[in-house]
Design brief:
This protein has about 475 residues and is of the alpha/beta class. The protein is built from 12 helices and 15 strands. The chain has a domain of about 325 residues: Alkaline Phosphatase, subunit A (3-Layer(aba) Sandwich), CATH 3.40.720. About 30% of the residues lie in helices and about 15% in strands.
């Protein structure tokens, strides 16, 4: 389960030949070639991988995302570092697991001492810009560091339909960044698939009603109904799918603008999600409260000139790897910085077999909140097995995902040797990320902050 010893040398040899990593040039009306490739990272909030066509979903929720996957590399088993937004995005942008970067609770945020990808790229001459629509990754919590431009106008709570505004701002910022001679890093965060789910009649996956539900019920009300029928849950899922399809339209517009500007051939595009969503498959409607596949398995697509096209990686990989991956593809040395994610660059080279991958770790450390049950769990997954440990009760769950992809049969008791071996791996990981923990401090939250958090289901009574 460990990485091949010569993986780093394979990467180094490949970097010298990969066209993406050379100085990029294209026909952009006589403009001077950029000194390196651009980076466009698109993150969609609360997006399950298995609700996208390119991941096998039968409903047409994602034509633009599917097209991106067709011209790039799709990671079939990508995992977030945590099942909710703040620690997940912090891990994407820091290359650290949540315990180490410290943004593990909405009262904490990102410590200033944790270097972020936009800071590193700006130091290397990149222009940086972000458009975000989620309160938990806003400036209030330290996520505005390293950006030349940081738009959070679309942070208006979970009842606001933000895709048009995010798309318009991202397109505008993309044009501004394209006017400069320096390469750029643009981060676009879409929020609409997050509860409360809103209908989009132009896509019309959902019926007018089901049982007691009209489809307009807020998530808090749905969670108070402990006897939802299959048809009622199906209506919620249908409206969630409409949100995905609606967001896909925004992604399509943004990618079309990249093409119109003549930048597609000199831009690394990364598409992913911060976490998924559970629809009562394990007794919960929402996220945060578990480490099951519904919440931690997310889409990940990488596309760009010189990278593999139409390839699928079957190995499990972690979003903690995104920052070291970007730096390796751009040939930017880490220097004294230490990352806990292993670069995914070796998976992206044409003409090579996929290298073996290490186990993937994830965690949730959410106590002292009113949105659901307090949850303190850690887990890992490899090509076959998945282990989840409750840090409070000590309960261990072990699943054979090949035989039981729905995680219905806990085989910890029948496979004690496997459970013990994976438990030891998890404990070694816990020791490492704890040893490398950044200093954190609780943030002062005002009345407006608490009102926003209550609307998102963190600081209000959701039970």
């Amino acid at each position: 389960m460990e990485l091949a010893p010569d993986r780093r040398s394979i990467v180094a040899r490949g970097l010298l030949a990969l066209p993406l990593l050379a100085a990029c040039s294209s026909d952009r009306g006589g403009a001077e070639p950029r000194s390196g490739p651009n980076v466009l990272m698109i993150v969609v909030d609360t997006l399950r991988a298995d609700h996208l066509g390119c991941y096998g979903y039968e409903r047409a929720t994602s034509p633009a995302i599917d097209a991106l996957a067709a011209r790039g590399t799709r990671f079939d088993r990508a995992y977030t570092a945590a099942p909710w937004t703040m620690p997940s995005v912090a891990s994407m942008l820091s290359g650290l697991h949540p315990t180490s970067h410290g943004a593990t609770h909405y009262k904490l945020g990102l410590p200033a001492e944790v270097p972020l990808l936009p800071e590193i790229l700006r130091e290397r001459g990149y222009r940086t810009g972000a458009v975000i629509s989620g309160f938990l990754i806003g400036g209030r919590f330290g996520f505005d560091r390293g950006w030349d431009v940081f738009h959070e106008d679309e942070v208006r709570g979970q009842d606001h339909v933000s895709t048009p505004g995010v798309t318009a701002k991202a397109k505008e910022l993309l044009r501004e960044l394209a006017d400069g001679e320096e390469p750029f890093f643009l981060f676009a965060h879409y929020f609409d698939p997050h509860e409360n789910f809103k209908r989009h009649p132009e896509h019309a996956f959902a019926p007018p009603s089901a049982g007691r539900l009209t489809g307009d019920e807020p998530a808090k009300a749905l969670r108070r109904m402990d006897d939802l029928t299959a048809d009622e849950v199906g209506l919620v899922v249908d409206i969630y799918d409409e949100e995905i399809r609606y967001t896909d339209d925004g992604v399509a517009e943004l990618l079309a603008t990249l093409r119109e500007l003549g930048l597609e051939d000199e831009t690394l595009v990364l598409f992913t999600a911060d976490h998924g969503e559970e629809f009562l498959s394990h007794g919960w409607l929402g996220h945060v409260t578990s480490l099951y596949e519904d919440l931690v398995r997310v889409p990940l697509i990488a596309a760009g000139p010189g990278l593999r096209s139409g390839h699928v990686v079957e190995w499990p990989v972690s979003l903690v790897a995104l920052t070291p991956t970007v730096l390796e593809l751009l040939r930017i040395p880490a220097g004294t910085r230490s990352f806990q994610g292993e670069s995914l660059a070796p998976f992206l080279f044409p003409g090579r077999d996929d290298p073996p991958a290490a186990p993937v770790f994830f965690e949730v450390d959410m106590g002292d909140w009113e949105g659901g049950p307090d949850t303190f769990k850690k887990g890992l997954v490899d090509a076959r097995y998945k282990l989840i440990r409750d840090d409070v009760t000590g309960e261990v769950e072990l699943y054979d995902l090949r035989a039981d992809p729905g995680e219905r049969s806990n085989v910890a008791a029948s496979k004690p040797d496997v459970a013990a071996r994976y438990g030891d791996l998890l404990e070694r990981h816990r020791a490492r990320v704890t040893r490398e923990r950044a200093a954190t401090g609780e943030r002062e939250l005002g009345a407006e902050d608490l009102e926003m958090l209550s609307g998102l289901g963190y600081a209000g009574d959701d039970r």
